[in-house]
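Working notes for the structural subgroup meeting. M.R. asked for a predicted model of this chain before we commit to crystallization trials. I am recording the input and output together here so anyone reviewing the notebook later can reproduce the run.

Input as submitted:
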Amino acid sequence: MTDVRIKDGDAVVDSTGNYEIISDMDALFQRAQICIGARLGGFIYDRETGSDIRSIDAESDLAKENAELIINEALAQFEDTRAVVLEYGEVIKLTITIGGESRNTEVHLYGNI
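Returned structure, recorded in token form:
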């Protein structure tokens, strides 16, 4: 799998003006991050991509647990992929595991993509 690197919601361009390409595990982890941060139904080419994470009340005592449930529901479409939410707020801090590889990351909530 290959993809264009996304940073802060924008495609990354290298010094020659070409899009920076990522592949293999980097692309899979980026795909998971985009799925978590994108609004469910907001991707015009695949209305099943995204999460309903914005429905969670951040002030709730169970916000972190509810976020983890919603995130893992969104990631269920990807083989052998899961997440553990470490912190839920304006930015979601989590550990994503794909296959046997885990990475700590932050996900920012995007709108439609």
